[in-house]
Design a protein that fits this description.
Bound molecules: NADP nicotinamide-adenine-dinucleotide phosphate
CATH topology of the largest domain: Quinone Oxidoreductase, Chain A, domain 1
Number of helices: 8
Number of strands: 15
Order of helices and strands: EEEHEEEEHEHEHEEHEHEHEHE
CATH superfamily of the largest domain: Medium-chain alcohol dehydrogenases, catalytic domain
C-alpha cells in the first residue's frame, strides 16, 4: 500500500514522505478498512515531526482521521474513525489501509458523504463536543455573544459554523486581520483581531461574552476566562498557543464561570454516534466545501508546514483512495 511514513533517518533525524509499505505490517487486531479520505489535524502535523508525545514507535503513519469502507465488505456502507489510537498507537489514515478494532468505527450517517465526514473529522467532532458542553451548561442564543478563539483553524472554523447554525451570535477571535471576510462568511457576527501585546494584568475584564470555545489555550485561555460574564461557560479544547495558562480563580469564584474540558480522543462511543447524527442532520453546516482544501499525500509536507506556521485557514482534506 502507499502511505505517508515518518521514520528515523539513521543519523538522529527524521525523514517523512510517501512510500510503499506492506499491508501485512498492520498487525494490530481489528478490521481492515480501505481509506478514501483522511484529514490533516494539528496533532498529525506534530506526528509528522516525530513528536514523542504522539509517536511512540517508528516507522509511523500519521492520520488521526480516516473514512472509507471495510476492505472485506464494502457494501456494508461507509464508515469513519477519529481518535482512539488511530494515527498514534496504530498506523493512521495517511495510508491506503488502516486496521482498527471494530468498536472504533462509526457508520457515516445519511446526510454526509465520505468526503464531508472528513471535512468535519476530529475537528468537527471536537467543535460539536464543545458546542454541546455550552448547551448543556444552559447557554442559548439569548444569553449573549459567544467567543471562538483560533477561529480560522479547523476546530475554530467549524465551531463558528456550528454556533452560527444554532442561532448564536459569534465573535471570532483571530490573529489574521485578513481573515475577516472568511470568518463572516462562516457566520461570525463580529471578528476581533487578537492583540499581540499582553492584556493588562487585571483579575477580570469587562464581561463581554456569555461563553467561549477556546482552541488556543495558554495566555488566550486566561484572557477568555477574564472576559466571560456572570454564569458563563468556556469549553477548552486546544493548545495551539500553549498548554500552560496563567490566571486566577476570580472568574470562577466572582462570576461563577464554568470551565469544561473537551476530549475527542477517548470520548464515549454513544456520544460520538449521537454527535455525528447531529452533524449530519440539524447541526449540519450549510457550506462545508467553503472551508476545505484538498491535498494529495505527496503534497502533505507543504500543508504540514503551513499548518504549523498557523498560516492555514479551515480544513485540509487528504485524498487517499478517493473514488468520489
Ligand atoms: N481536545 C480535543 O480533543 C482536540 C481535538 C482536535 C484538536 N485539538 C486541539 O485544538 C487546537 C486546534 O486544532 P486544529 O486542528 O483546529 O488546528 P489548526 O487548524 O492548526 O488551528 C489552530 C488555530 O489556532 C490559532 N493559532 C495557531 N498557533 C497559535 C499561536 N501560537 N498562538 C495563538 N493562536 C494560534 C490559529 O488561528 P487564528 O490565526 O485564527 O488565530 C490557527 O489557525 C490544537 O491545539 C489541537 O491540538 C484538540
Amino acid at each position: 500500500m502507499d502511505a505517508y511514513v515518518v521514520d528515523r533517518d539513521g543519523r538522529g533525524g527524521l525523514v517523512a514522505g510517501l512510500g510503499r509499505r506492506d499491508v501485512r505490517e498492520l498487525t494490530s487486531p481489528g478490521v481492515l478498512m480501505r481509506v478514501q479520505y483522511s484529514s490533516l489535524n494539528y496533532k498529525d502535523a506534530l506526528a509528522a515531526r516525530g513528536d514523542p508525545g504522539i509517536v511512540k514507535r517508528f516507522p509511523h503513519v500519521p492520520g488521526i482521521d480516516a473514512a472509507g469502507v471495510l476492505a472485506d465488505d464494502p457494501a456494508a456502507g461507509p464508515v469513519l474513525v477519529t481518535g482512539y489510537g488511530l494515527g498514534t498507537e496504530v498506523w493512521g489514515g495517511f495510508g491506503d489501509y488502516v486496521r482498527v478494532p471494530e468498536d472504533w468505527l462509526v457508520p457515516i450517517p445519511d446526510g454526509l458523504s465520505v468526503r464531508d465526514s472528513m471535512i468535519l473529522g476530529t475537528a468537527g467532532l471536537t467543535a460539536a463536543l464543545s458546542v454541546d458542553a455550552l448547551l448543556q451548561a444552559g447557554l442559548d442564543p439569548a444569553a449573549g455573544e459567544v467567543l471562538v478563539t483560533g477561529a480560522t483553524g479547523g476546530v475554530g472554523s467549524l465551531a463558528v459554523m456550528l454556533l452560527a447554525r444554532l442561532g448564536f451570535s459569534v465573535v471570532a477571535l483571530t490573529r489574521k486581520p485578513a481573515a475577516e471576510a472568511y470568518l463572516q462568511g462562516l457566520g461570525a457576527a463580529r471578528v476581533q483581531v487578537a492583540r499581540s501585546a499582553p492584556a493588562p494584568a487585571k483579575a477580570l475584564h469587562k464581561a463581554q461574552w456569555a461563553g467561549a470555545i477556546d482552541t488556543v489555550g495558554g495566555e488566550t485561555l486566561a484572557f477568555v476566562l477574564k472576559g466571560v460574564g456572570y454564569g458563563g461557560a468556556v469549553a477548552a479544547c486546544g493548545m495551539a498557543g500553549g498548554a500552560d495558562f496563567p490566571g486566577s480563580v476570580y472568574p470562577f469564584i466572582l462570576r461563577g464561570v464554568r470551565l469544561f474540558g473537551i476530549d475527542s480522543v477517548q470520548c464515549p462511543h454513544a456520544v460520538r454516534e449521537d454527535l455525528w447524527r447531529r452533524l449530519a442532520g440539524p447541526w449540519r453546516p450549510a457550506r462545508l466545501a467553503d472551508i476545505e482544501r484538498v491535498v494529495d499525500r505527496r503534497d502533505l509536507d507543504t500543508a504540514i508546514a503551513a499548518l504549523l506556521d498557523g498560516e492555514r485557514t479551515g480544513r485540509t482534506l487528504v485524498r487517499v483512495g478517493a473514488v468520489c
